[in-house]
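Example record

Each entry pairs one chain with its bound ligand, L263DTV3.
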Amino acid sequence: MLGGVLCLSQRNFMKRLEGNNKVHNWVDSIRASSPTRAKSSSQNQEKSAWNAYHPSALNMFDKMISNSKGKQIVTFLDYDGTLSPIVADPDKAYMTRKMKGTLKEIARHFPTAIVTGRCRDKVYNFVRLAKVYYAGSHGMDIKGPRKNQSPKKGNNGKTMLFQPASQFMPMINEVYKILQVKTKCVPGAMVENNKFCLSVHFRCVEEKNWAPLAEQVRLVLNEYPKLKLTQGRKVLEIRPTIQWDKGKALEFLLQSLGYNNSDEVFPIYIGDDQSDEDAFKVLRSRGQGIGILVSRFPKETNASYTLEDPSEVEQFLRRLVEWKRSSIVTTTSL
Ligand SMILES: O=P(O)(O)OC[C@H]1O[C@H](O[C@H]2O[C@H](CO)[C@@H](O)[C@H](O)[C@H]2O)[C@H](O)[C@@H](O)[C@@H]1O
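Structure tokens for the complex follow.
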């Protein structure tokens, strides 16, 4: 009996320890995903070493274009931190006017999809471009081209909806309500409902309260084994445990565009966050196109190239448009 009681308390102790470790790992990874380091000379060296493996996509533009020769470029763009700068209020993450104009041109010249953790409707309200395909909720809510539609024809207004996690919507709504109540006591905490996933925002929470907030999230998630947690830039993201992510969404969109197992396509995926790594991995394993990480700081990544911030993303996209325009002029004047 005594042995049994000891075992139980030992088990409880181990469980608590496991819980504490989980919370600390999440908090560490939130910290790592948004580094704010001042530039010292050793950090400059670290950055140069990193850039040797992940050079600037602006510097490598000509090489990249020559690799895409004869292939259809398709652009995949993350939203927050890629097309729009990171801001404290997620409802105010607007693109600059310049970015919006460039994005419009990109979508005119190349099949283009926005792949985001956001709710699809919300991101559409920020972007408002009909020619773009939208994959919201980390790819779990895709408004994309009709299967095997001819890629040359664009979306023609004909789209289809793919929602592989639709059965989780009631659960997500339930957890959203619970988390709203449970996180009320943490000043600055905010929960965002992204339809098939949730975001718990840490950006406006004092760092000393990060662990208590993460602990609230852990306690709620304990009751929902069919949901899992991932980390982003000062955010914890709660999603269904289905095998679906931005990488799968990218493959799905390529297939829908008629480029399944095709050599004729050159996908360019640009993103800044952990969730974009799934897409970079897919491109690497297919040996196709390029992944571009948006980051000012060295980070472990599966992307080949880098850009520092959304303003460099805009420059890169503009060069792509200019190159396309000039290649059209050259072809028509031949
Ligand atoms: O896949 P993404 O488009 O990058 O979406 C990921 C999360 O982006 C948003 O949060 C991030 O941007 C906010 C606005 O700049 C910022 O306040 C927050 O700290 C960042 O994590 C969005 O609000 C989340 O729902 C997305 O999961």
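Residues 167-240 form a domain with the Alpha-Beta Plaits fold (CATH 3.30.70.1020).
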